[in-house]
Predict the structure.
Amino acid sequence: MVSRPRRPAAGPGQNKPAPAGVEPLGSVRRSQLVSTFGIGAIVDLEKGSFMPLGQEDWEAATRSPALAISEARLEAQLGVNHFRLPPVAEQIPLSRRVNPASTAPAIRFPEWHECPRCHRIGQEGEPFELDEDGSRLRCLAHGTGVKAYTTPVRFVLACSAGHIEDFPWSWWSHRQRQQGICATPALYLKSHGKSASLGDLFVECKACNSRESLGQAFSAGSLGNRKCGGHRPWLRDREGDCSAAPRVIQRGASNVHFSIVASALSIPPVSDAVFQIIDHHWDMLEALPVEALKPVLASLAQRYDTDPGPLAAAIRTKRGFASGQEDLSDLATRADEYAALSAARNDPVVAGIVPHFRNEILQPPQSLRPWFDLVGAVSRLREVRALAGFSRIEPYPVSTDKIEDAIAAKRIAPIARSKRAWLPAAEIRGEGVFLRFDHERVNEWIAKSGGLAERVAIIDAQSARLAAERGYERSYSITARLLLVHSFAHALIRQITIDCGYSSSALRERLYVAEPSGSDRAMNGVLIYTGSPDSDGSLGGLVRLADPELLEGIVIRTIRNAGWCGSDPVCLETDPAQAGDRVSGAACHCCLLVPETACEKFNRELDRAMLVGDADRRFPGYFGMEGELNWLS
């Protein structure tokens, strides 16, 4: 539930008391408030266009202990001591109003609106007024009895540093006028009526008869020497002049907001019931002196009918994460998850507290053993996703342990004016299927495929070029192993949606890929899990696919269908050197692309040729070595 911060709703000359509660602006799902519609995003609701405010404005609504959640590894990576779930609105009895302290606060953005009747554009007070409920603007030019509600304008200015502000309508409409902006501009947004193109729109000032077409608004240099003003409406402040060039973008465009979401799976020991007990009482335990800890743990053990030893071990582990004793890099945490998914786990329930993680290891069916050596049926899974910042114009790939550095360098926009001890987060509980590729088989395929290295090098060079142009540091290189695992994950997600009825947006991939280094073995596995807290959640349908009889059919169909795309031969013959910003080989909407909520890498770093071989037969696909695909036809 989203609401506007309460303010006096009385009109001129009136002195009404503040209402009990506020009219909600609208509602979004909890998980969306830490992703698509997170802090700094633009949310289109029935009552207009609004922007969720920063963490400072969330304090009152999220203070309840019931909204606090924990994930020790992720907390240590992000430098916080807990996470908070978005609030749930409390309805005022016998009314349509809600308690404003129980909603996510938002501010109107953009501030400029258009009257759909007379096409006047302006802001609150110039010339529009707030309606009685305090959430919508209306145009008074049509009489007080006419509900002429305005609509937000389509264009805003944004920069790559995350700043955003209203389009300069007054300046644009007068930019050809030698005297500049007139004293009392009266602006109207009109159309010539000849077409639906942008060039058909123009802004007219009736006070001085100036007019200007919007046809060149999106062109490079259209704003002249105008600088970014450093506006941060989600924090209700202005950072000062910014060196990044402002750009005109559409209010509802996808590049307005790219959330930076850090996530982690709850795996042993963090997932254990005793660790959850320690998390629940951590505020008290953390403050205790060492000499008082032993009797308190004995009391807790008696209360939860367990032994003090595991509780003490959980405290040591949690303190080890917080003190930085553990390696908390992205690669190390993924390696821990990879090891957990590769081992059977069924920890006991303690005092009714159920462990977050349960995994059963199965042998793949005989027909799949040339390619996979292990299958994990993850029947109980918990993921915590925390919103740590966001970018605009372009996505900014960054590892979790580098997010603070990126915010300091102004590559990522912050979600608070000053660092807080918590971050907004969502908790996803579901299930999944883990497939581990045969390590020796992958190495053999890479070593024997002559033209493979050349194709991979081209895609890696494209990725390096894009990173250099956009100013971010790559934490990994693109390898054949990565392209193979990632491409298979997308093909499998698409096949699951066909065979099992899951929507592709309800599924999510989690990739485990690393080249061998010293004594560390390579990682080559993928977890496909339910990534939505809604009706597609943990119902048993996905983990059931790990059954050898079902898994055999769905993987074989995945491989077979990957051999042909509706856009072939064009798709398979795609030259990676000409893929531009896609940073992919053969991958399109007909074969590999999935909703971006399901992909970890913005639908990049994909190549169907890794699965079935390239069009020129310079190298075989992983699933096509030595004619092994013949029996599938």
User: Anything to note?
Assistant: The chain has 14 helices and 26 strands.
